[in-house]
Design goal:
By secondary structure, the protein is α/β, with parallel strands linked by helices. It has 10 helices and 11 strands. Strand 1, helix 1 and strand 2 form a beta-alpha-beta unit. The chain is globular.
């Protein structure tokens, strides 16, 4: 079977790297496409996954407006490649370009989706910009979601089957069957895994779903790290600019070793949803700080 997969974000590489490895072992072929965003292509290179770049996601003023033409460029590039290679299956994180191409070219599409966030209608620009592609035809033959998600895709006319799994996407690469902590990989980077340390994560807050939300500002970042340093060494994993005062804390480690570092941390604090979930799964005490935080904001139930 020939399978077409698109990587929009570094997290997608982690989610599907073992799927690709397993299916290739069974004789299936993959054509991987990638958006240049953060460390996405770096991870693909490190995991020896061949790919073709079809677009980029970059930080700039009025970035949401910029993303509208980029969205159509990416959709066209995927369509052109899919039409040329005629895959038997489309696979990946649920996204509109793949769903539209599935409908247009009549190619089965299996996808994963784990976000319950709804658009804030008070944020007019976000609603307008993100509603444009929603007017276009799309479909997904099967959508997998964690069982705790509140969204019901089975009621959507463009989803044939919705399967809820009792899991989180992070277990696709952090389950004990897939992840083995390795102290030597940290030692090779000059990090003592037995030393007490905290890991702090700062994100840029410039994705579609981040409009109107925020994490740590520069002053808070400095105050947080200096406070943590009173009790332990502090490493920073960060997107964008890190305050000059914290430049010596910036992590110098291969991007594919971040989960090894996280596993050996004594504490994780950050404004990232995904990395906070990863830390909790690995049994690391975790504090998440951003304006998303609230009751059931990550679809976590007490039941």
């Amino acid at each position: 079977m020939k399978i077409l997969i698109v990587f929009y974000h570094p997290a997608h590489v982690h989610t599907f790297k073992n799927v690709i490895k397993g299916l290739e072992h069974k004789g299936h072929e993959f054509k991987a496409l990638a958006i240049e965003k953060e460390i996405t292509t770096d991870l693909l290179d490190l995991y020896d996954i061949e790919y073709e770049i079809i677009g980029e996601s970059r930080t700039k003023k009025f970035f949401n407006i910029y993303k509208v033409p980029m969205y159509f460029k990416i959709t066209y590039n995927i369509w052109k490649i899919a039409k040329k290679i005629q895959p038997d299956l489309l696979l990946g994180r649920w996204n509109l370009p793949m769903a539209q191409i599935s409908k247009k070219l009549d190619i089965p599409y299996i996808s994963f989706f784990d976000s319950d966030q709804k658009l804030d209608k008070k944020k007019k620009s976000k609603v307008v910009l993100s509603s444009i592609p929603n007017l276009l035809p799309r479909r997904s033959d099967i959508v997998f979601t964690p069982s705790k998600n509140k969204m019901d895709f089975q009621n959507k006319k463009y989803v044939i089957k919705h399967i809820k799994l009792p899991t989180y996407k992070e277990l696709a690469y952090l389950h004990p069957n897939q992840f083995l902590p390795d102290k030597s990989s940290l030692i090779d980077h000059g990090i003592d895994p037995d030393e007490k340390f905290s890991l702090v994560r700062f994100v840029e807050w410039e994705a579609w779903h981040d409009v109107g939300k925020e994490g740590f500002n520069s002053e808070q970042k400095i105050k947080l790290v200096k406070k943590l340093e009173e009790n332990s060494k502090v490493y920073i994993s960060g997107e964008g600019d890190i305050p000059y005062e914290l430049k010596d804390n910036k992590l110098a480690i291969s991007v594919d070793k971040i989960h090894n570092l996280l596993y050996h941390a004594n504490l994780f604090i950050g404004d990232s949803q995904t990395m906070a979930t990863e830390a909790a799964i690995l049994g690391v005490p975790t504090i998440r700080c951003n304006t998303f935080v609230g009751e059931r904001d990550m679809t976590i139930s007490s039941n």
